[in-house]
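Structure in, sequence out. Go:
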């Protein structure tokens, strides 16, 4: 767990203050990649197919933005 935290800290430290929403979205995506590891794709699928009440739905409710690397 400490290794994950160090990786997250490094990404935020290095890129978190770069201007542009697309770059900040990339930072968030990279953090989620580290947190979710091999379950990242499943996590994105759940994110995109969950409605405001927290229920799973067949149609996409949201779109996960992977951003653009700085």
């Amino acid at each position: 767990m400490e290794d994950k935290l160090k990786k997250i800290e490094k990404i935020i430290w290095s890129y978190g203050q770069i201007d542009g929403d697309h770059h900040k979205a990339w930072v968030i995506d990279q953090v989620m990649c580290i947190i979710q590891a091999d379950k990242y794709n499943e996590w994105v699928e759940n994110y995109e197919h969950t409605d405001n009440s927290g229920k799973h739905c067949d149609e996409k409710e949201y779109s996960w933005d992977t951003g653009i690397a700085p």
